[in-house]
UniProtKB/TrEMBL annotation:
Record gene name: rpiA
UniProt enzyme class: isomerase
Pathway given in the UniProt record: Carbohydrate degradation; pentose phosphate pathway; D-ribose 5-phosphate from D-ribulose 5-phosphate (non-oxidative stage): step 1/1
GO MF entry, a single one: ribose-5-phosphate isomerase activity
Organism this protein belongs to: Rhizobium wenxiniae
Family: Belongs to the ribose 5-phosphate isomerase family.
EC number: 5.3.1.6
Stored NCBIfam families: PRK00702.1 (NF001924), rpiA (TIGR00021)
Function recorded in the entry: Catalyzes the reversible conversion of ribose-5-phosphate to ribulose 5-phosphate.
One BP term from GO: pentose-phosphate shunt, non-oxidative branch
Keyword Zinc attached: no
Record's protein name: Ribose-5-phosphate isomerase A
Family annotation (PANTHER family): RIBOSE-5-PHOSPHATE ISOMERASE 3, CHLOROPLASTIC-RELATED
Length: 231
């Protein structure tokens, strides 16, 4: 089974949690897109959901496939969000933002009663940090914000390098008009402490550590999909 087939397996298992009439947060990324494709088939077969997308990219795919959408302002409280992750650990702490959608994803997840993460088993790790942590920053004062991030990481004994995400020669810009710093800290032993340090920096808009947000993870491997519950 290749990586795409595993993503489809996880997405299909997540679809079983979607009930008629739900207000549904819809994630971003290649795994979430497999979910959107399967969801669209169900919608064409009669399932009624109101979807709130976590990115412009997801919104485009949903509209292309006929999944009707609302904004989070129209539906500020959601029943369930299904989203992917770049990494997850056994406590269902996540790193997200590899696709640059972390801010809207976190706002949508926080507005949801339940969050289900879907991933292939390559994303499951003992300790977060092999995947560089995406940190969304305000363009104003970006150098000062980067220095502050380095100092915050050093206070926690984390080293590593920061790089500004680019698209070609241009700095990558998020849906909210911000930049992304990819922080290669390496192993992150205390994600909550790092989260608090990063939130204390004014130029940091949000970071890609999602802690205590996911209630269930569906992990697909060659043998099929299994679930992990939040502890
Ligand atoms: O910003 C993007 C999101 O956080 C994605 O959920 C994450 O990057 C995982 O994407 P993929 O399913 O493509 O690995």
């Amino acid at each position: 089974m290749d990586a795409r087939e595993m993503k489809v397996k996880a997405a299909a298992a997540a679809l079983a949690h979607v009930e008629d009439g739900m207000k549904l947060g819809i994630g971003t990324g290649s795994t979430a897109e497999e979910f959107v494709r399967l969801l669209a088939e169900k919608v064409h077969a009669g399932l009624r959901v109101q979807g709130v997308p976590t990115s412009e990219r997801t919104a485009r795919l949903c509209l292309e496939l006929g999944v009707s959408l609302k904004s989070l302002d129209e539906l500020p409280e959601l029943d369930l969000t299904i989203d992917g992750a770049d990494e997850l650990d056994g406590n269902l702490s996540l790193i997200k933002g590899g696709g640059g959608a972390l801010l809207r994803e976190k706002i949508v997840a926080a507005a949801s009663e339940r969050v289900i993460v879907i991933a292939d088993e390559s994303k499951l790790v003992e300790t977060l940090g092999a995947f560089p942590l995406p940190i969304e920053i305000n363009p104003f004062g970006q150098m000062a914000t980067r220095v502050a991030i380095e100092k915050a990481a050093a206070r926690l004994g984390l080293g590593g390098s920061l790089s500004m995400r680019k698209t070609g020669d241009e700095l990558f810009t998020t849906d909210g008009g911000h930049y992304i710093v990819d922080a290669s800290f390496g192993r992150i032993p205390d994600a909550e402490a790092l989260s608090a340090e990063l939130h204390s920096i004014p130029g940091v808009v949000e970071h890609g550590l999602f802690i205590h947000m996911a209630s269930l993870a569906i992990i697909a491997g060659p043998a099929g999909a299994r679930t992990l519950q939040a502890k």
